[in-house]
Description:
single chain, Cytochrome Bc1 Complex, Chain F, 0% strand, membrane, mitochondrion, transport, QCR7_sf, Cytochrome b-c1 complex subunit 7
Amino acid sequence: MSSFLKSFLDPKKNFLARMHMKAVSTRLRRYGLRYDDTYDQYYHMDIKEALNRLPREVVDARNQRLKRAMDLSMKHEYLPKDLQAVQTPFRSYLQEMLALVERERKEREALGALPLYQRTLP
């Protein structure tokens, strides 16, 4: 990306990006989610592979957060304020593994090897 685009999207440098990040953070805190929880494993196969490579405890915690968020949403409620205060919506657990999976996929494509997985529609 160009340096202008990077500075435009950086919340430390752009007021609008900072406002957007704060709004997203508030919405995620209300339901106890992290930003990485919003990635859909059925939308992109790299995400599914990255989730398969994560430790079971991390995936179980993700599933619990998603279940709690769906339950709160169906009840039209939010987490209590004291629990919202301790949430960390932008603490990443998936980004490093996702970057590794994407690098491996690109390397396999460059070498002409067979893909690690085939895209199938659920």
